[in-house]
Every structure is written in structure tokens, then in C-alpha cells.
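Lab channel / #folding
Pinned by the channel admin:
"Please post every new chain as: sequence first, then the C-alpha cells as a reply. Keep commentary short and put observations after the output so the thread stays searchable."

First post following the new format, from NK:
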Amino acid sequence: MPDLFALDWLALAVFVPLVGAVATVLAPRRAPALGLASVAATAACVWLLALRVVAEGPVVVQLGGWGAPLGLDLRADGLGIVMLAMTALVGLFVSLGALDTFGAHRPGAENERMRRYFWPLWLLLLAGLNGAYVSTDVFNLYVMIEVIALAAIGLTVLSGKLEAMRAGFEYMVASMLGALAFLMGVGFVYLEAGRLDFAGVAQHAGEPAMIAAFALMLVGLALKTALFPLHFWLPRAHANATAPASALLSGLVLKGSLYILLRFWIEIFQPSDLIGLIVGLMGTGAIVWGSVQALRAQRLKLLVAWSTVAQIGLMCVAFALADTIGAQAAWQGAVLLVVAHAVAKAAMFLAAGRIAEEVGHDRIAELDRTPVRPTLAQFAFALAAISLIGLPPSAGFAGKWLLMEGALRAGAVPFVVVAMVGTLFSVAYLSRPLIGFLRFDRAPAPVGEHQGWAIADAPPLVLAFAAVASGLVAAQILALTAIGAPFGAMP
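Reply from TO:
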């Protein structure tokens, strides 16, 4: 019997979806089967890699036998495994939902086109995300960022509708500007350090050219993360994409650039308190502005999209506490919030897509006027809201608790208030559709008690349950992040 640990699961987690993307392009009629098989195989690779990391500690692979600084090292530690596993879980169930959304049972040239191009774009995105989570080279991260952006823009415009095309154009402009800023930062890094691997770059972290490099990279990553006030592209992109694409864009794509920023912050540049405060204030602005816009949103998907702006802001509050006594609790809270948001937001967008499909629209003011009640989709939406609001036992609750604990330890009481105000805001804007789900008095005909049930309801429902139950394994998630850098090295 072969030793499973001897196989290179780390490299396979990146190359399996890449090969799958090529296969779906070459055999478009079999794209759904090939795509789902590739996603499942990637999830299996991540699972086996996680077992190895738990058993042996961080795993490092030298591509082609050439390690840093001449070659590329891929590295999987505890934090990387958490991100890989989160991506595998969300990606697998979004893929199952896409089988129905773009299924062969839905005739038409438009659906055929979406079915043909969704799978290669999604698998390319998966390869880029996994590559970013295991990269230890600044330029390789730039390449992964561009792979992610290329696939994400394609997913945004997949429906071919005019609003989606406009949103995709805005996304492309923001992505190009962010990529340009990041690449200029990479150039400064190479000019100063003469190498691009994390360990080599960290040796020059305090030098003026490195400060300029980090500033440029920070701007680029803030654009790609849609951090206020650089969020202009996000609401329209997420609101006008197809439901599976929106789930991937909100649940996974934003986490890639946020993860890179966290890695840079802790492992390489360790920026000043002032920069951390600026990022924290940008996060505060995101919470307020995103929440206000979510309260004003007329469409369900647009509400969910604006809520992403607010919740990304909450995660960025941790950067303001990076050099304080509460740093470890804040970082751990941010990681739990990232996981909770990814799973819950994917569930919410899939559920919103099902609701719009069954009801015929996603106008919030009219959700309580239809006799059609997609009850499972509405229930999944409500469960996901529990995690996003931060109610126990969800990981959203555990993440907010740790974030506020870190702020209290640091004496940063204003950021505790920010987290609490953000929670109240989320209760307010998420209550808008939930009230519509529960009202029956405005329906013009008898309400269909079980209308809208379908196999497509299963993925958002499972993800919503996972979002709520994730808090029960929060301790295990945090224990995993302690394997290797960055959190394992912290006191």
C-alpha cells in the first residue's frame, strides 16, 4: 500500500484544478462532470495535505527541485490549510449548486454558453486561490492575484447582461489599477533586496524602499479587497453576477487578497502603528458606509453585496491592533470572521439566487407579496444571517468576541464600539428581507406552503448549517492556525 504522505498533495492542490480547467475547455459538453470531479479531487488533496500538516508540521515543496531564492517554494502551514479547507468546502457546494443553475435541463443558447464557460473560469479561479495560499514568493503572489482577477472578471460578466458587463468593466479597471500598484511594489522590493522570497525580503523590511513598496502593495490589495473607500466596483459586480458566481466572488475571491495582506503584515513588513490605524479607520468607514447602503438597497443581492463591504471592514479592524498586547486575539478573531463570512456569504448568495428564481425577482419590498414561498432557500438565508450578525454558536460570534477581546486588551475601546455598532447595523439590514419572508398578510393568493423545494436548495442549506455550526469547532480551527507561521510564532 503506497504511503499517502509521500505524495505531493501540496502541488496537486494547485495543479489539479488547473488541469481540470484545461480539460473543461477541451471537452465543453462534459464540462460539468469534469469540473465537479476536479473540485472534488482538489478537496481530497487538501484533506490529505491537512492530515500531513497536522502530523508533521508545515510542509515545504521546492518546485522543480529549485528552492528560494533562485526557485519557488510552496509552503503549507496551519493558516494556509485553514484557507485551503475553507475554499474547498465552499467551492464544492457552490459547484453542486452550479450543476442546477447551469444544468442541461435549462434549455437555451444563453444557458449553454454560461454552462460552457463557468467551469473553466471557476477552476482557474480555484487554482489561483490555492496557489496564493501556499506561495512564499512576492512575484508569484502577483501572478496568482492576476489569475484570480482574470477568472473573477470572467465570472462577473458570465450572464452577458448589460448591467453585468458594466460591472465587469468597473471590476477590470479596479483590478488593473490594483495590479499595477502591486507590481510596482514588487519592483521596489527586488531593487532593494535582490530577491523575492519572504525570508529574504523580510531581512530588508525596515528600509525606505521597502516602506514605499509596502505602501504600493497595500493600495493594490485594498483595491482588490474592496476596502472602503476603494470599494466602488464591488456592489454592482456581486449583485449582477449569476448566483454561483456571486457566491464565489464574495465568499472566496476577496479572501485571497486579504490573506496576502495579512501574510505581508505579520511575516515581512511589520508596518508602523500609524499604518495599522489608517487601515482600521478604513475598516470603520467600510462598516458604516456599507451598512447604510445595505439599509437603502432595493434588491436582495445588492443588499448582500453591500453587506460584504461592511463585513470586510470589520475584519480589517484587526490590523489596527497588530502591534498591541491584544494582537493575537485580534488576528485569531479576524481568521474566524474570514471563515464565517466565506461560508455564510456563499450560502446567502446561493439562497438569494434561488429566491429570485422562484419568486421571479429579488425586490425586497415585494418579497412578502407573492404566494410563492421558497421556504428552504429563505431558511438557508436566515441561517446564514445568524453567522453574519454574529450570534452564537456561529464562528461569526466567536470571531467578533475574540476581536473585541483583543481591542479591550489593547485599550482600544473605540474599536469595541465599532464592532458592536456593526453588529447592530447587520441586524437592521438583514431584518429587512427576513421580515418579508415571515409576512403572509400581503400575499394576493393563498401561500404555497412548500413551493420552491428542489435539489438546488441543498447547497445553500448545507453551507448555512456549516456557518452556524462552525463556531463549535472554533477552537480546532485556531489550534490549526498555530501550526507554523504566522500565529505559531506569536506569544
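NK: The first strand starts at residue 59 and ends at 62.
TO: also worth noting, Residues 370 and 443 are 5 Å apart (CA to CA).
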